[in-house]
Amino acid sequence: MKNVLHIDTVGDYLNLRKQEVLHPLVGIVDFENVNKEGYENKNYDAFHYNCYAVFLKDAKGCKMRYGGKPYDYDEGTLVFMAPGQTIELSGFDPDYVPKGYAILFHPDLLIGTELGKKLHSYSFFSYSSNEALHLSAKERKVILSLLEKIQFELEQNLDKHSKKLIVANIELFLDYCTRFYDRQFITREVENIGSLERFDVLLSQYFSSDKPQKHGTPTVGYFADRLHLSPNYFGDLVKKETGKSAQEYIQNKLIEVAKERVFDPSKSLSEIAYELGFKYPQHFTRLFKQRVGHSPSEFRNLN
Fold first, then answer.
1. pLDDT tens-digit map of 39-98
2. Contact 236/228 with Cβ under 8 angstroms?
3. Which of 169, 217, 232, 260 is 20 to 30 Å from 3 at the Cα level?
4. What does the alpha-carbon distance between residue 165 and residue 109 come to, in Å, rounded to a whole number?
5. pLDDT tens-digit series, residues 124-134
6. Is 259 in a helix, a strand, or coil?
7. Which residues have C-beta within 8 Å of that of residue 250, sequence separation ≥ 6?
């Protein structure tokens, strides 16, 4: 990437789109109000954000299909950006004009608030753009109503209630996004099951190969990468479908394999530990005892 535009403040983005800055820490853009001059991105290959940004991208007539079934999610797509993330600009038609909305807020807005304490729990800020939230018509109305409330507050004279009301509506906005993502996981159940089946196959293949000795015990990121998912989205998918975290799921499989291998008297427990990817045998022993209730040697003698 040659030319990266750094969006360090909310004002940086609003100025780019030739919009008035009503508040230094939060702003909303309605792309219907952005003239041609505000779309000039030709000098940039990417945007790097140092604030939070959520884009409602309207894509009329773009029917979605999940699990072989059509769904009416052509009213809009929500894409989330967190501080420190970069979005590349590529593959656009030269005459492409964005439609929809953007809301940006700086982390400083949330200092001392309950939302600031729990913002890390909104894992969709770390999803890839291809894992965006696809809204139904009803869901889109909810999102737009909350953007309208925030914009209303931005247009008032600042008073002692302003920050509380703005932050409360941003929190409600994100809580609804969490609900809608849960719906999307259910909607995509057939596709998700396919991903979990591939995950199981990859997990078995990992332990039957020499990868543990070369790369260590398997990580969530390793499997997410092979399934072409972001680690956070993959972790949430596994949690929604199995009730277990992806790390816990991997460890369960590791313990299953370990139990089988502990039965082999021709191998020492240290050899088994190294085969499973542990750098130090005592780490294997500690995990095995935590999950099984007996050390590997006790388990071997019991059986």
1. 665 567 788 999 999 999 875 544 444 444 444 445 588 999 999 988 876 655 555 566
2. no
3. 232
4. 12
5. 998 987 788 99
6. helix
7. 203, 217, 218, 219, 220, 223
CA distances from 62 to 50, 72, 236, 302 (A): 31, 9, 26, 60
Q: What counts of helices (H) and strands (E) characterise the chain?
A: 12, 10
* Three-class DSSP category at 301: helix
Please tell me the distance from the alpha carbon of residue 118 to that of residue 175, in angstroms, as a whole number. Answer: 11
Spatial neighbors of 236 by CB under 8 A, at least 6 apart, are 123, 124, 181, 185
* Helical H segments across 74-219, by residue range: 114-118, 137-154, 162-187, 189-207, 211-215
Type of residue found at 35? N
Q: Six-digit token pair at 55?
A: 């884009």
Amino acid at 86: T
Structure tokens at 50: 């140092």
Cα–Cα distance for residue pair 169/151, rounded to 1 Å: 10
What is the DSSP code (8-state) at residue 265?
T
Amino acid at 40: E
CB of 115 closer than 8 Å to CB of 106 = no
Tell me if 80 sits within 8 A of 124, measured CB to CB: yes
What pLDDT, in 10s, does the model give residues 4-43?
Answer: 889 999 999 999 999 999 999 999 999 989 886 666 655 6
Token pair belonging to 169: 């509506």
Do residues 164 and 31 lie in contact, with contact meaning Cβ atoms separated by under 8 Å? no
Q: Fill in the DSSP letter of residue 158.
A: P
What is the pTM (predicted TM-score) of this model?
Answer: 0.77
